[in-house]
Amino acid sequence: LQMILESSDVDILNVRVLSQSLGSSRRQLEASSSSSIDIKTIVTGRHRPPPELNFDLLIDDAVNKNTEYFRKELTDVTKNEKSGSSFFAQVNSIDSQPVNVKSREPPSTDP
After folding, report:
1. CB-CB neighbours of 59 under 10 Å
2. How many CB atoms lie under 10 A from the CB of residue 10?
């Protein structure tokens, strides 16, 4: 994510996973089924204006405009072998949906 946002003068400080949930659906008329995983994260970053920017939209766009890059990162067998897992090997799509989280004020530097 940092590499993708490099030209926007934003530093990604942390990506924290809040929750994960698995889901699946089976269409009654079709023999196909699909599964999904919902991963909620908080992305913390730093930016010095100007210009002002919408951080939620910036992250959302960075993921949604680079879905193939992220899909390849998840499905790359050589990277997944290191962890001993091929859990994401069948991922065929990725998308991002921002959830409004109230931003916290930066810590004060006053003594």
Report:
1. 21
2. 20
Are the C-beta atoms of 55 and 48 separated by less than 8 Å? no
Tens-place pLDDT, residues 95-106: 888 776 555 444
84 backbone dihedrals φ, ψ, rounded to 5°: 75, 20
CA distance 88 to 63: 17
What residues contact residue 105 under an 8 Å CB cut-off, 6+ apart? none
pTM over 0.70: no
80/77 Cα distance (integer angstroms): 5
Enter the tokens of residue 27. Answer: 């269409």
Q: Which two tokens stand for residue 51?
A: 């210009």
